[in-house]
Structure formats: C-alpha cells, structure tokens
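Extended Data, panel c. Modelled sequence:
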Amino acid sequence: MGEEVAHFYRHPALPEVDLLRARFVTHRFTRHAHDGYVFGVIDAGVEEFEHPGGVQRAGPGSIVVVNPGVVHGGHAGTPEGWAYRVIYPPVDVVAGMAAELGARQGTPAFPDPVVDDPATADRLRAVHRAGEKGDALAASTMLRTAVAGMLTRHAHDLRRNDASRGSGMPHAVREAREILHASLVGPPSLDELAEAVGTRPFPLLRAFRDTVGLPPHAYLNQVRVREARVLLDEGLRPADVAARTGFADQAHLTRHFKRTLGVPPGAYRSARSIGRVGAHGAPEES
C-alpha cells in the first residue's frame, strides 16, 4: 500500500468538525478516547482496534464507529496496513442533527463499532472529497446527509448527557479526575491522589480503571493531549505547549499526540491555521 501518510483537515463549513485521511502500516494508536464521535470509512486494508466489546476488525467499505468517551486503540489488521477517511463530529453537532430528525433529547449512541452500510460509507467519503476541494456548501450538505444516515440506520438508542452519566461515577474517581484535570503540570503520585480522595492506592486504581477505562496516568496524558489541542488552536508553538501541558519536552508531547490523533502537533497546528496538512511535508516547529 506504500508509505504511511496522514492528512488532517478542518471542515470548510464547520471548523469544529475534524477530518483525517490516512494510510497506516506500522503506526499504532494508543488506547484513548475522544470527546466527540468517530466515523471512519475503510478504503483499503484492514484496521484492527481494541474496543470494550472486544477486538474488532474492519475491512474495505466498513464504517468504524466510536462513541464519545469510549476508550479504544487501533493498528493494522494485515501486514499491508489500512487506509481510511475519518470524520470527528462533536457531540453537540450530532445531537443537534438528531433533534432535527425528531429524536428525543439526549446524546445519540451507536451500539455497533463496525457497520456495513455502503450508501452511508459513500456519503462519508463525499464529505472528504468536498472538503478537499474547499466546497463548503457541498461538504456541509454531505455531512448532514451522512450523519443523518448514521442516525436513522445505526443509532439504536440515546444516552443521557455527560453530566448525567458522570453522576453515576464513584465519588473517589470523580474527585480524582478533577484533581488530575487541575494538575497537568506536577501531578500527584498515586499514593497522594488516593490520600486526597480518601481511599487507598490499589482500590482507587481499580475503580478508576474500571470506570474510566484507563489508569490515572494514562488518563492524565489524554487530558494533556486535549489541552494541547486547545493551545495549538490558539497558535502556540509545540515546544511551548509541551511545557504548559506537563509533557517532559516536545518529543514527549509529539509521541502521545501522534499516538492519539495520528498526526504530530506541528502538523495539527498547521492544519488548524491553513485548513489542511500532511503528516509528511510539514516540519515540526520548535
């Protein structure tokens, strides 16, 4: 399939919707979660990814679906790797479209991590093609059409909003998350974190992992990557972002950023400023 490449885009009509077109062979996505949805169409090869329902395999024409907050990984399912086009719509965008379709209030959920729907897959590809041409009208039209197809054919129920879901989280885990969000630089040790929330290290570690899907240190790195995206959107240089988000240095930021998003922070920053960038061809900024 050739060398690895990744192009990161901003939707020409809805800048909060990210687009990724990539081909990966050896690249592995670390276990992570997104605040919004993931809709990915496999163009060639096979992607294999970890999911709460077990290891999933998606081949050509399949649509990979990941709900907000669901921890997952990703890697090649064959030696040749895989090529795909991904759309990352935020929760409010999808929920808004669901409301327009008459769905009851809430956050749509997609129960199947891999779906076979050639018509919707074609519409998702069309979103990318229009975006590559900078055609805002076509891209926004196809995005609504594609998401409508996903909602009407594959969203079998609605989840409560994040605030409601969080109310069922163990108190110690909820407090520990709040501490980590406030401690990107110089976070506490596991012992200190457990003491701060009134429990012991091992029970906290088990409860945190069972509830969130990641241990505290891995969850903190995901929070750091999300904050890094915000700072990169504001135009900060990757080296400055690394220092402000608690990464040891720019290389440390780059490693976690690429494992989560598929592109390095310099490429992401360029995409946010000019609308498109390739993972190869845009130098990292120091």
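The two ends are 32 Å apart (CA to CA). This feature is highlighted in the accompanying rendering.
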